[in-house]
Inverse folding.
């Protein structure tokens, strides 16, 4: 079968690509667009390492097909820092040592940003349940949750 | 960032919370992990795996696959020469390459579901997958055995016809699945048990659990026409990967350059090779780069979990609480090939205690499961779970506080361990004291809530280690280490280098060198990388300081003993020589060419004196009597770090180990069907703790300095997974009155136990 011709917006840039029907958005991001910040930990939507936003909604990019994103807007970890300035979440992850190996970090950051866009002052429990779809095997989540709460507080200060 | 650095004063960076130098790359998605490397013209490699847990391979026909357009190479057992059965040192590990070559690619038999049988490289993943379907393998399916006790029976299906139990006299005349019997003895346990007023004897059972790193195994190999090769892979030890691959492929070690990618978790599971030799063999055949990445299902079915086990424990004490004798028998599953961590399990079982009479026996047993790999303090969590559960039961029987009972019997400096050595300073008593002093220990509990405490021991290791420091033209320093950085190593080593050389932390730029850049460096494991890496950095810095002093002496026309290195400068010792302005490293860097050439140091050491790290954990939990679900309410982990180089990453080790231990205790297990096939090879069904399963994990960093390390450092990475299993089980007993002896204490098991006792009503 012929490949699909797709145009979409990724991290604010117009992109155009061809993809097979069975290729996932994650495949397209990593293999076609060379945006390897989104990681594949499971390919089944269980680990959240491939988290991106699709028209502002948090999704596992391994559960979206590349041919579904025509005309839509994707944001990945690669667009989180603005110029030399890290997003407060990125900065707090560094300060709190909220990463050890770092493979899950892009997914956690994208998911946390989506949370704080919806809820400026989440409770610890709300952070924990929002991030329950992101697996981390190194940290025990303690410093990740602290970093998100701290970033939220800082962002509220403006 | 500035707030963090402000903590630093003249006393140095060690002990402060710096920002890790590799951090920005990791929060921006820039860091390159195993699957993030690509080369022009690369092929995609895929593995055909056995669908049977045990089968003789009659024939493999690859001709149709090879004929498929886009397929560039196919490899099978025929592409790997056989290896003799002998144990060869690979760093501090002993490898039997006869087994390694068979685990990488099945030869006579497939020994577990997921055992590689063939591999293909094609121009796309889709073609590679199609090619796998065209490979015809004729199997003779054999009876299989999964359970460790069943595998030990004389009538059990035999995995290896030539495996005779080692360590028993006389040598057996029949092959069996018991690869090895080990034993350690101290004193006389029969006499010890006679002195006991109370004896507790129990049998425990644990299930295999997977390390659960989020990054699947990945490798990219490129072999050139002259036989030299490059390999990029995610590994805990690229020098070990080089050693294994060179051996399996018959290459000169110098011709294989291995670069470790950023590693997305390992916990012991990335200390062996799986895809790497296959990618090299395919690339050698195809003469093109070959990239291979495992799926999560492959990770579960074909890479090493740790052992499941059956453990018997018998512990005796006087009525005033002194342990008189301790016995244990450990049966550990090794998976399809020998080499379970039963030996360290045996050695660690009673190591936290000072007991006169100890005997521990262990069996290493093969069965039709994936070959186990190291998992964080390999073997110790299993045996210490059993022992720490019995210590808790003994405390109840004697009506002694469980911390006091541990304190009364704690190993300390001078204690002769049953496994051999006499301990130097160790922190068992200090961690017990630290936990006892917490508010947590005395906080009130409600109905269905319970509190448990348990301790844990791990040896830690040193070993062969290289690190280099190069002073650049502008006075900045490049640091190169040979152990992959799995969780803050570069930060720790840069801090030590900055303190040694008296320069700002951000002027040291650390990288992990490839195998061509440094001498053989053993892997990141045994909680050794910060311990021995920092020792190698200290050695490299010493060389630089000596060299700079010699250069200054020449410049100032004085004797080398008249100059000294202090706080980043070489100074003249003689006050009268005030005319000589102290020279900084940057000053020397500027004139390096005129004073003797490039400046650098190269630490090449075999690090000795790794001090054991002991920990004590405290947990509160609540049991839901209607569902059997257990919720962790509160957790405190205390552990001896010797000296914490970077406290945040030390705490992170405690927290992460606790979380893995909680998963092991409550939910994680390999579930096999009667057909010998794994039924839960995915993260949905293999249930690791998520953020909503856990509370904050409080940490107490105890520091009993290790006298054999220049900064007092002990390895900290592994001990944290040892105490949680028993701490949780002891808390379960406290909440329900039921002594759970089988892991995991998952809801169905807990509910059944509650029902049996009529307790399942709110």
């Amino acid at each position: 079968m012929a490949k699909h011709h797709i145009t979409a917006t990724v991290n604010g840039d117009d992109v155009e690509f061809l993809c097979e029907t069975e290729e996932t958005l994650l495949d397209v991001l990593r293999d076609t667009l060379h945006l390897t910040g989104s990681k594949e930990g499971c390919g089944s939507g269980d680990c959240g390492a491939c988290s991106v936003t699709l028209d502002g909604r948090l999704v596992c990019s391994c559960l979206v097909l590349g041919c579904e994103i025509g005309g839509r807007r994707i944001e990945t970890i690669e667009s989180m820092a603005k110029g030399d300035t890290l997003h407060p979440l990125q900065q707090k992850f560094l300060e709190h040592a909220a990463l050890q190996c770092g493979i899950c970090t892009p997914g956690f950051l994208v998911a946390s940003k989506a949370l704080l866009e919806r809820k400026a002052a989440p409770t610890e429990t709300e952070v924990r349940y929002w991030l329950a779809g992101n697996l981390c095997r190194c940290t025990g989540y303690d410093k990740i949750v602290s970093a998100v709460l701290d970033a939220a507080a800082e962002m509220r200060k403006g | 960032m500035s707030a963090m650095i402000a903590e630093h004063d003249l006393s140095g960076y060690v002990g402060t919370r710096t920002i890790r130098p590799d951090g920005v790359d990791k929060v921006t998605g820039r860091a390159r992990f195993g699957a993030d490397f690509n080369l022009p013209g690369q092929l995609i490699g895929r593995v055909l795996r056995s669908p049977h847990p045990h089968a003789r391979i009659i024939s493999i026909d690859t001709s149709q696959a090879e004929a498929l357009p886009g397929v560039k190479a196919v490899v099978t057992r025929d592409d790997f020469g056989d290896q003799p059965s002998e144990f060869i040192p690979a760093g501090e590990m002993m490898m039997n390459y006869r087994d390694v070559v068979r685990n990488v690619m099945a030869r006579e038999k497939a020994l577990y579901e997921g055992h590689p049988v063939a591999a293909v490289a094609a121009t796309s993943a889709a073609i590679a997958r199609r090619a796998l379907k065209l490979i015809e393998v004729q199997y003779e399916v054999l009876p299989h055995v999964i359970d460790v006790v069943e595998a030990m029976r004389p009538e059990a299906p035999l995995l290896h016809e030539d495996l005779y139990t080692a360590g028993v006299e006389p040598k057996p005349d029949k092959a069996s699945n018991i690869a090895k019997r080990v034993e350690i003895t101290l004193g006389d346990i029969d006499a010890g048990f006679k002195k006991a007023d109370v004896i507790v004897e129990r049998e425990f059972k644990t299930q295999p659990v997977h390390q659960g790193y989020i990054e699947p195994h990945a490798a990219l190999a490129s072999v050139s026409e002259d036989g030299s090769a490059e390999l990029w892979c995610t590994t805990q030890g690229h020098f070990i990967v080089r050693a294994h691959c060179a051996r399996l492929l018959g290459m000169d070690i110098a011709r294989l350059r291995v670069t470790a990618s950023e590693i997305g978790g390992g916990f012991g599971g990335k200390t062996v090779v799986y895809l790497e030799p296959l990618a090299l063999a395919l690339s050698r055949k195809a003469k093109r780069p070959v990239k291979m990445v495992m799926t999560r299902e492959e990770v579960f079915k074909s890479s090493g979990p740790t052992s499941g086990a059956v453990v018997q424990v018998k512990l005796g004490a006087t009525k005033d609480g002194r342990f008189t004798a301790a016995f244990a028998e450990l049966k550990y599953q090794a998976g399809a090939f020998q080499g379970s961590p039963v030996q360290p399990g045996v050695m660690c079982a009673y190591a936290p205690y000072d007991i006169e009479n100890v005997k521990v026996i262990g069996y290493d047993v093969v069965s039709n499961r994936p070959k186990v790999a190291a998992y964080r303090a390999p073997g110790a969590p299993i045996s210490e779970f059993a022992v720490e559960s019995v210590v808790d039961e003994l405390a109840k029987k004697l009506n002694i506080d469980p911390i006091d009972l541990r304190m009364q019997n704690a190993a300390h400096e001078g204690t002769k361990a049953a496994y051999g050595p006499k301990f130097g300073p160790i922190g068992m008593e200090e961690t017990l004291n630290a936990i006892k002093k917490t508010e947590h220990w005395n906080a009130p509990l409600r109905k269905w809530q319970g509190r448990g405490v348990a301790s844990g021991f791990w040896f830690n290791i040193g070993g062969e280690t290289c690190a280099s420091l190069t002073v650049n033209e502008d006075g900045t320093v490049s640091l190169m280490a040979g152990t992959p950085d799995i969780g803050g190593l570069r930060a720790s080593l840069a801090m030590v280098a900055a303190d040694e050389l008296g320069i700002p932390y951000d002027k040291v730029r650390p990288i992990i060198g490839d195998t061509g850049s440094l001498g053989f460096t053993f892997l990141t494991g045994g909680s050794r990388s910060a311990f021995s890496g920092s020792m190698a950095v200290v050695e490299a810095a010493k060389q630089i300081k000596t060299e700079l002093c010699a250069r200054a002496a020449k410049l100032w026309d004085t004797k080398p003993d008249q100059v000294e290195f202090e706080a980043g400068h070489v100074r003249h010792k003689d006050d009268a020589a005030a005319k000589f302005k102290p020279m900084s490293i940057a000053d020397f860097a500027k004139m390096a060419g005129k004073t003797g050439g490039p400046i650098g140091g190269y630490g090449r050491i075999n690090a000795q004196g790794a001090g054991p790290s002991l920990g004590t954990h405290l947990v509160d939990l609540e049991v839901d009597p209607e569902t059997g679900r257990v919720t962790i309410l509160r957790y405190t982990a205390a552990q001896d770090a010797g000296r914490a180089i970077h406290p945040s990453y030390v705490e992170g080790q405690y927290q992460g180990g606790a979380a893995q231990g909680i998963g092991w205790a409550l939910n994680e297990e390999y579930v096999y069907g009667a057909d010998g096939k794994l039924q839960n090879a995915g993260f949905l069904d293999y249930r690791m703790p998520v953020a909503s399963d856990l509370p904050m994990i409080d940490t107490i960093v105890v520091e009993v300095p290790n006298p054999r390390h220049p900064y007092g450092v002990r390895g900290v990475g592994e001990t944290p997974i040892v105490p949680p299993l028993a701490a949780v089980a002891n808390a379960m007993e406290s909440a329900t009155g039921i002594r759970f002896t089988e892991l995991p204490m998952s809801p169905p098991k807990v509910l059944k136990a509650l029902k049996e006792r009529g307790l399942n009503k709110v």
Notes: The longest strand of chain B covers residues 323-335. Chain B touches chain A through 61 residues (CB under 8 Å). Residues 1-9 of chain B have pLDDT under 50 and may be disordered. The first helix of chain B runs from residue 2 to 6.
